[in-house]
Specification:
By secondary structure, this protein is mainly alpha-helical. About 60% of the residues lie in helices and about 10% in strands. The chain has a two-stranded antiparallel ribbon with strand order 1-3. The chain has a two-stranded antiparallel ribbon with strand order 2-4.
């Protein structure tokens, strides 16, 4: 039984390393399962970046709060530590977003046609 193949929606192009058995066609075909797996991976990558962003924002807000309030004079060092960690967490999230994106698009590309 031959697997079900999937053509990208109109306006999208698909480039992959998996070609159909009918090699007369030059258009690569990707199974629906594989295409959906790629889309799930891309969405999970974006959700993970948003989690890093949210964590960096919380660290930044917490750091500013601890540094600015007089009630936290004893732990002001913790506020400064949060202020240093916030951009680092954000940069790690950006690095991870683009590295995973590059790995996924290095094998498959499903994107808008120009």
């Amino acid at each position: 039984m031959e697997p079900v193949t999937f053509q990208a929606p109109p306006g999208y192009s698909v480039r992959c390393f998996f070609y159909s058995k009918n090699m007369q066609e030059n258009k690569p075909k990707l199974s629906l399962t594989d295409w959906l797996a790629i889309e799930r991976t891309r969405l999970a990558n974006e959700r993970t970046f948003l989690a890093y962003f949210r964590t960096a924002l919380a660290l930044l807000a917490g750091g500013v709060t601890i540094v600015r309030l007089d009630a936290f004079q004893d732990v002001r060092w913790l506020g400064y530590a949060f202020l240093v960690l916030a951009p680092l967490v954000f940069l790690v999230g950006l690095w991870r977003l683009f590295s995973v994106k590059r790995r996924v698009e290095g094998r498959f590309y499903v994107g808008k046609e120009k």
